[in-house]
Amino acid sequence: MTDIANEDRGELLRVEQLTKTFTVRNAWGRREGEVRAVDGVDLTVHRGETLAVVGESGSGKSTLGRCMLQMETPTSGSVSYEGTNLTALPRAQRAPFHRSMQVIFQDPFSSLNPHRTALQNVMEPLTVLTTEADPRSRAIEALHSVGITGDAVEKYPRAFSGGQRQRIGIARAIAVRPTFIVCDEPLSALDMSIQAQVTELLAELQRELDLTYLFISHDLAVVNEIATRTAVMNRGRIVELGPTREIFENPLHPYTQRLLDAMLVPEPAEARRRLARIATRPEPTADESGSNVLAERTPAHFVLE
Ligand SMILES: Nc1ncnc2c1ncn2[C@@H]1O[C@H](COP(=O)(O)OP(=O)(O)OP(=O)(O)O)[C@@H](O)[C@H]1O
Ligand SMILES: [Mg+2]
Q1: pTM
Q2: Domain tally for the chain?
Q3: pLDDT tens digit string along 85-109?
């Protein structure tokens, strides 16, 4: 699907001037300072798209996703979903949004309850978040759609391989019929051979269920393959945003250029080494200016001024 087609389908989620700061404390609990994990981000997610968020470790990708899902309370700014300002909504009225907005985590082992079967794990959000008459059948259906069938549904997480556990995590997310899913590094814990299968599954589910993804990833090869648009984050800010092909073929911000240089190498260990090096390099002065204004340089391609 092209970016233009997604824009035609309108906005699903919008964050405005979103900021999240964390207090850093030392070992004795004394306040040592503040981290601006997300720093004045403006971003719109279009219905039906896969919007990738890339950036080195600590750049604020997960915090941005967690704020969208109301798993973190933003320090300031707003998150609107289907036209409703979630940040202004009383907690009691947020339940329908918790169903419609789901998450798939990097490590399915820690997100699944080890003392419950695959089926029980998938049933849990159905009983908590929906009024589904037959949560068991619905959970079995969701597990089938990710390829977990037969007696396997009664097994415990430890009996599955990493790829299968991630499939259970995906079943858990889609069982409640969400519209929007934050995929937070869903492939990082998996073997290379399994990554391709899970990527294909996510793409298939997106088509069948009309899902919108915020796809957080370190893996630019996967992003290049599946994302409609890509946002590049550095130190809590989006420094570049545009159609994925544009970001890869015509990166305009120096940080994006360095990130691409560092990550577009075939060998993961070498990519990590390069990434560690860019993290310690001084930033260009433009990033320190405090400006948060993105300018449209080519159509739909925005760069931090
Ligand atoms: N609960 C927290 N308390 C304190 N600081 C936090 C907390 N969560 C995140 N941070 C800090 O906020 C910054 C952004 O973290 P975040 O996890 O969003 O980055 P990320 O881009 O997802 O990194 P990674 O690629 O390693 O997952 C980091 O400096 C991190 O240490
Ligand atoms: Mg993260």
Answers
A1: 0.91
A2: 1
A3: 999 999 889 888 999 999 999 887 7
Side-chain half-sphere CA neighbours of 169 within 13 A: 28
Q: How does pLDDT run across 222-236, given as a tens digit for each residue?
A: 999 999 999 999 999
Distance 58 CA to ligand 2 centre (A): 7
61 lines ligand 1 (CB under 6 A): yes
- The CATH number linked to 86 is 3.40.50.300
Distance CA 301, CA 213 (A): 19
How many CA atoms does the CB half-sphere of 291 hold within 13 Å?
12
Beta carbons of 258 and 288 less than 8 angstroms apart = no
- Does residue 58 line the site of ligand 1, with CB under 6 A? yes
Given a cut of 50, whether residue 1 has pLDDT beyond it is: no
State which residues form the domain around 149. Answer: 3-304
> Whose CA is closest to atom 28 on ligand 1?
58
